[in-house]
């Protein structure tokens, strides 16, 4: 099996150095590049096409939220693990909704971060416990999605790609009003509060096939 190739995007050199040193000690992980800001990180990711992009959020020139949104628009198959110190909803929701596969805190242990990198590399969702609580994921109701219609599942799949309502309408050749109705029905049936929680639900229940 080939090593999991990782790039690190963080404006703190010591954070990158510490993480790189730890990861390169692993038998199956290799750090192949580093960047100190979002724009530099996007360019590096598009050039190297790593298995996992480890992304900080607060950086100069372009922050991690914008970099995540931009990278996933240009390379939909990118697997991004956010690694940050922030638990703010306004940071968590945009990157998860855009398609980031993981959200971990820098206070997590090295072993937890390594485990998350491996999960993300496999296309699985890796959400730190405190973050998971904030998005209120409903493990206790694993079959809520059985109530979704085929069209609602189509809409949910496009939500996981970070598309807005107008783009979904264009993709499915339906009206904007119909999309809004489908989204409202999805949230109600999955018993979630917003689109981001619906996206997390979809990934957690393997409702979305991974892109090539």
TrEMBL record:
Keywords, ordered alphabetically: DNA-binding, Phosphoprotein, Transcription, Transcription regulation
Modified residues (4-aspartylphosphate): 56
Domain HTH luxR-type residue range list: 141-206
Record domain Response regulatory: where: 5-121
GO molecular function: DNA binding
Protein name in the entry: Response regulator transcription factor
Classification via Gene3D superfamilies: 3.40.50.2300
Pfam families cross-referenced by the UniProt entry: GerE, Response_reg
Gene Ontology terms: biological process: phosphorelay signal transduction system; regulation of DNA-templated transcription
Database matches in InterPro entries: CheY-like_superfamily (IPR011006), NreC/VraR/RcsB-like_REC (IPR058245), Sig_transdc_resp-reg_C-effctor (IPR016032), Sig_transdc_resp-reg_receiver (IPR001789), Tscrpt_reg_LuxR_C (IPR000792), WalR-like (IPR039420)
Record flagged with keyword Phosphoprotein: yes
